[in-house]
Amino acid sequence: MVLSQRQREELNKAVADYLSSNGYLTALEGLKKDADMPGEVERKYGGLLEKKWTSVIRLQKKVMELETKLSEAEKEFIEGAPTRAKRSPCDWIPRPPEKFSLNGHRAPVTK
């Protein structure tokens, strides 16, 4: 995946903040040298890398849960219902004798 120039700069600044906040000063100096980052890292990038990392993990977990739900729904769709075994399409149409008979009024429901 290719990052735009702005995204690359934001990523470098977020990594630089992470390195400086955790005391990896030699790695920070190397990053600043390789990425041509002059001066100090802005405070607005403080904790940004950790936030994005945790959000990626949370979203991956959600994707896995939704994929599981989707596969269960597809299985239910193919089998007809979660408690029934797989049925052929000819079994979907009711055949006589009927299992239930409705007794009650004979007038239309809508008046």
UniProtKB/TrEMBL annotation:
Note the PROSITE patterns from the entry: LISH
Identify the residues that the record assigns to the PAC1-like LisH-like dimerisation domain, covering every copy: 5-39
InterPro entries the UniProt entry points to:
LIS1_N (IPR037190), LisH (IPR006594), PAC1-like_LisH-like_dom (IPR056795)
Q: Which Pfam families does this entry report, sorted A to Z?
A: LisH_PAC1
Q: Which residues cross the membrane?
A: none
Q: Which GO terms describe its cellular component?
A: dynein complex; microtubule
Q: Kindly give the SMART domains that the UniProt entry links to this protein.
A: LisH
Its recorded name reads LisH domain-containing protein
Q: What is the lineage of its organism?
A: Eukaryota, Metazoa, Ecdysozoa, Arthropoda, Hexapoda
